[in-house]
Backbone:
């Protein structure tokens, strides 16, 4: 039985040849993502804005004006409605009820009873409540977690390899994070703590893919010291390409199943991870590796002192 090979042997794709096109595309996508976040904003979930969120599933797509009028007539505060997933599913946001948990439960009961009278067959699938103080802490901690993860990984790459690797790693990861934020700004899918977890997972996936390529680049720099840096980058990326493609495809299949059958709760997480796999693979192959050339990395950087008594000798591996 023949083994499945997603990438043929002796593949020799010229990734470096299109690096300037990749740089321009990356810059445009990054600017577009920042502009989308700045203009449209993120549809922050109850985790971050505080308040009461009720997820309702109607028998058929409801008229939102009628739903809003029904809720606002109850005197429980100004409601905010959003359809997501499918037209029948509506997210209802209300201000947090003053008092204890009993007051919140009373508001939920009041809203659900009124909507059941107006829309027979309606089902309530989720209810979340977060205070304003807690939501502020969650925003601060979520942003801090992402920023520390990005900078920590960049510093590790700097210390593990060379400063050029640290810079290229930082650029690639920031690009992946911004693409995710831009996607949620454009689609207006709910951005909650699940998505923060997805962003951190994307950072981990991206750096794992990039470290494999960086290790091969460093290994080849010690092995082929006279090789042109462009050819060396292409060689290293092509040598690791089967592993990169196989990992991306298997993760993509698993996330695709999660997106289709995981339900509404996991839909945002799955969508973010799917995007992260595609963007992370792209940035590892086309952006961060080729960026090493623009940063001036050369194989001669790894030259070592010749062995004693052999002034002309060139030692590839460490002395034993």
Residues:
């Amino acid at each position: 039985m023949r083994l499945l090979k997603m990438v043929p042997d002796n593949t020799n794709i010229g990734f470096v040849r299109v690096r300037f096109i990749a740089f321009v595309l990356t810059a445009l996508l990054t600017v577009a993502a920042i502009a989308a976040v700045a203009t449209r904003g993120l549809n922050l979930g109850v985790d971050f804005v505080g308040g009461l969120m009720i997820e309702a599933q109607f028998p058929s797509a409801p008229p939102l004006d009628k739903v809003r009028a029904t809720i606002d007539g109850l005197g429980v505060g100004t409601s905010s409605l959003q359809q997501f997933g499918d037209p029948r599913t509506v997210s209802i946001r209300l201000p947090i009820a003053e008092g204890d948990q009993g007051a919140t439960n009373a508001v939920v009961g009041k809203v659900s009873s009124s909507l059941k009278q107006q829309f027979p067959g309606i089902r309530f699938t989720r209810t979340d409540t977060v205070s304003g103080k807690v939501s502020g802490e969650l925003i601060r901690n979520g942003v801090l977690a992402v920023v520390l993860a990005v900078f920590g990984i960049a510093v590790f790459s700097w210390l593990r390899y060379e400063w050029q690797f640290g810079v290229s790693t930082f650029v690639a990861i920031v690009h992946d994070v911004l693409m995710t934020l831009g996607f949620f700004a454009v689609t207006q899918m709910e951005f909650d703590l699940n998505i923060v977890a997805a962003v951190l997972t994307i950072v981990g996936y991206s750096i794992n893919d990039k470290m494999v390529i960086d290790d091969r680049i460093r290994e080849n720099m010690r092995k082929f010291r006279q090789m042109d840096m462009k050819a060396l980058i292409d060689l290293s990326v092509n040598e690791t390409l089967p592993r990169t493609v196989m990992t991306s495809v298997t993760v993509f299949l698993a996330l695709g199943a999660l997106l289709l059958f995981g339900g509404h709760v996991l839909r945002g997480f799955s969508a973010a991870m799917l995007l992260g796999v595609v963007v992370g693979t792209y940035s590892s192959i086309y952006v961060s590796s080729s960026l090493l050339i623009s940063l001036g990395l050369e194989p001669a950087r790894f030259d070592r002192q010749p062995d004693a008594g052999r002034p002309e000798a060139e030692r590839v591996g460490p002395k034993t």
In short: The longest strand covers residues 86-94. The longest helix spans residues 229-261. Residues 51-130 form a domain with the Alpha-Beta Plaits fold (CATH 3.30.70.3400). DSSP finds nine helices and six strands in the chain.
